[in-house]
Amino acid sequence: MLIDREAESRFLGQAIPMQDHQPILMDTDRMESFKAAIQQQVFTGAKVLELGGGTGVLSWFAAQTASKVYCVEMNPEMVAEARRLLARNHLGERVEMIHADAFDYLPPEPVDIVICDMLHVALLREKQLALIEDFKRRYTAKFAVPLPIFLPEAVVMAVQPLQQKYDFCGYQAPIIQFQVPATYSSDTLELAQPAVYKIIDFSESNDTLIQWKGQFTIEESGSLSALRFINKNVLAVLMKKSSTIDWLSQYMVLPLPEPVKVTAGDIVHVSFAYHAGGSLESLQNAIRVTVKPAARVRARHLSLVVG
Known about the structure:
Helix content is 27%, strand content 36%. The protein is an alpha+beta fold. The chain folds into 2 domains: 5-117, Vaccinia Virus protein VP39 (Rossmann fold, 3-Layer(aba) Sandwich), CATH 3.40.50.150; 154-299, Hnrnp arginine n-methyltransferase1 (Distorted Sandwich), CATH 2.70.160.11. The strands form 4 sheets. Strands 6, 9, 10, 11, 13, 14 and 15 form a 7-stranded antiparallel sheet that branches. Strand 7 and strand 8 (171-172) form a beta hairpin. The chain is elongated. The protein starts with a helix and ends with a helix.
């Protein structure tokens, strides 16, 4: 059977089945962060659009103060389920569930806020960035008015070298892993501090190509076996309070093809390039790592001082 790759690409992030929405609804940090951000940004009488609405819960948060919420969902089963759930909740009638492809849909009128939660670590797989860029172009062409506020407003992406164990009851399996943020595991040793490699501001024009070259100074000796990717999703910027409402995605740990022994003081050079919305493997295969031993770094420093 031939797969339409373009259709499949657009489908990702827009057709999450109902069983996958249960852990989203049960993720208290995620739910409370989005609720707080929506409460801060959606003012009384606002018009709101959600792209990729799923169960409709974020649209329902917005409906508590908005006068109208357009909620777009591509999966017809989820549209029916969201309508059923919204009917059970006070003010759910303010949400209009629309069965449509978010890449094609525009609201019938200008809106004040656009909510889009197609977020994945490193902005891979799901189409958050491509969708928002496409939406901005089509929206401006249709309405010729200022763009709405986007929620989330920005994403800060960082990378960190790790010594990661891949021992599963004696079975060695270096596989992609996802970790709960800010939790300790004896299987993970942080070899250096994270480095920010990209900040995406959704109000600005953004290229889907993300690339970075940088370096780390190793702080803990060990075996460099993986890179951890971190997303801090800036859901809302509170200008009056000079603060933000943030939510951390699960950490994503990508194993390197072969571990490399490192010593405290070594300089590790890392580079990669990938397109937002691409596969996890597209990033994993693009990673390049080289190590400059601490002894060589010290020798070069001494030669510069003496010279």
